[in-house]
Each structure stands twice: as structure tokens, then as C-alpha cells.
TrEMBL record:
Protein name: NAD(P)-binding domain-containing protein
Native species: Meira miltonrushii
Domain NAD(P)-binding: residue ranges: 9-178
Any matching Pfam family: NAD_binding_10
PANTHER family: FLAVIN REDUCTASE-RELATED, UPF0659 PROTEIN YMR090W
Gene3D superfamilies tied to this protein: NAD(P)-binding Rossmann-like Domain
Amino acid sequence: MSFCYAIFGATGTIGSLLMQEILSCSSNTTVHAFCRSREKLLKCINNEDHKARVKIFEGSLDDIELLQNCIKEANVIVLAIAPKGNIPNNHLVENTAKNMIKAVQSLKNIKANRIVLVSSAGTEHRFMHANSSALFLAILDRALFHVYRDLEAAEKVLRANESLIPSTYVKPSALSHNFGYNPYRKPSAKNVFKLDFQNANFPCSYFDFVHGVMEVADEKSDLYENKSVATNSIGKVSFPIEAPVQLFVGLVVFYLPFLCSWIY
Ligand SMILES: NC(=O)c1ccc[n+]([C@@H]2O[C@H](COP(=O)([O-])OP(=O)(O)OC[C@H]3O[C@@H](n4cnc5c(N)ncnc54)[C@H](OP(=O)(O)O)[C@@H]3O)[C@@H](O)[C@H]2O)c1
């Protein structure tokens, strides 16, 4: 029997890789991809067989009817939406969570047994205490202040509605495109990641992360229900070289918010 993933943010870095891996790992999977641009979404799919298994829902996250159509036949809902950066007063993910709950409430029968929110360990510092100093956490919290507050607010909305539909909050530390220093390490879905209820190691690779999200989404039991879980790479992953610049830009906007529209 086929398994359908509704992915919101399917054109994003995480959403598009997740979609590709879901379609590559099994021929029995389908994706309902929610996006703002069909054209951009189609560029994220590189194979005709995969295209045939993707149904595209193009439009606004405020269109509850479109959200309903996207989720009503899905087995799991993944929210991988993100704003462009540390934008003050941004409520994008929170509003998406609110609209998703409205959509779920107004559907009589919903197949989906879970919402998976792609969040960040920065919203729950206990995940990072073992690996990070207080100074680093303070810098991180300012550099991504508005992103984290939005994710926290979204989690609050979903937690308040866990009796309607359970949720899982997947929280990696920084993500890296690089697989590390071992040239023999090829991406493979086996034994590359570990889901962890205690620690988020720095960094996790994008590839490993999306496989962790898939494991959470596919889990039949209630193991991850209504819980926060970190994803860790098992192998060596190299430092995301873009991170210092992103942190610096986030800090500038935190202290000088009037520069936001010029920067992003
Ligand atoms: N990247 C990391 O290192 C990292 C680490 C930890 C946690 N996370 C978390 O992972 C989540 C996803 O991150 P990402 O790196 O995949 O983000 P991303 O590449 O920036 O993708 C963001 C997605 O959200 C969509 N989006 C943005 N604004 C929208 C709007 N107004 N309406 C509809 N869709 C909208 C984008 O659509 P368009 O393509 O149309 O713009 C895109 O599909 C975020 O919550 C982030 O905080 C990321």
C-alpha cells in the first residue's frame, strides 16, 4: 500500500531533499508537495518516475481549503517552512501551524496520524548544553532570535492541539551539506543518523537529517508522539562554512532591525 507524505516547504533545502529521498527510497511512496511556485517545485524533481508520484498544491499557506486538499489523503504532514532569515515580527511558521490545525479540524476524517515540525535545537537549549558553551548559545539565540521565537510559537500551537492530532518536533543543531573528511563515506540511508531525545550534536548533515525525519514520519508506534527529538549524524560531518556569515548577518539584524529589509 502506498504511503503519502504531505510536505509544506517542499522547495526549501530540507523540504526538497526530503522529497527526493522519500521518492528514491521506495517506489510505494507519494508526495503531496505544497509550494508557492509550481515551476520552482518542478525544478526540485529530477526524474520522470518521481514527478509522476508528486501531486503539486500551489498557493498560499492562508488558503485553508488548499491545505485541506493537500493533507486529506496524506499519511503524515511535514512542516518544513522557514522565513528568509532573522526577520523581526515574523510569524510564518506559527501562522502555518494555526492554519494547519484549522484545516485538520474542518476535515471529518483525516488519515494522517502525525504532524512533523522541522524545528531546531536552538528552541530547546537542553539539547545543546553538552556540546555548547553558554556564550555560544547566547550568540546563537540572538542571531536567530526571531526564527526561534516563531518556531517556539508554532510548537505551542501544535502542543495545544495534540489531542486532535499528535505532533513531533524534530530538532537538529546546525546542518551541513558536507559529509566530512572520509572520502569513502557515500550517502546511504543505512546507519547514518541517530535520533536522540537528549543531545543534538554539531553539525548534522542534511542527508542524515532528512532520513531522521523520514524515520519519525514512518514510525507506526507512538514512540515520537508529542516529543522533541534531535537528529545526529553518526559519521563525521564537516563544519558548515556558511554558518559564521549567517550568524553574523543574524546578529546585525538583531541589534539593527531597521536594516532587515535591506539585508534580506
Ligand atoms: N538549515 C539549517 O541549518 C537548519 C538547522 C536547524 C533547523 N532548521 C529549520 O528547518 C526548517 C527549514 O529550513 P530550510 O533550511 O529548509 O529553509 P529554506 O531552504 O529557506 O526553505 C524554506 C521553505 O519555506 C517556504 N516559504 C518561505 N516563506 C513562505 C511563505 N510566505 N509562504 C509559503 N512558503 C514559504 C520556501 O518557499 P519558497 O521556495 O517559495 O521560498 C521554502 O520552501 C526551518 O524551520 C529551520 O529553522 C534549519
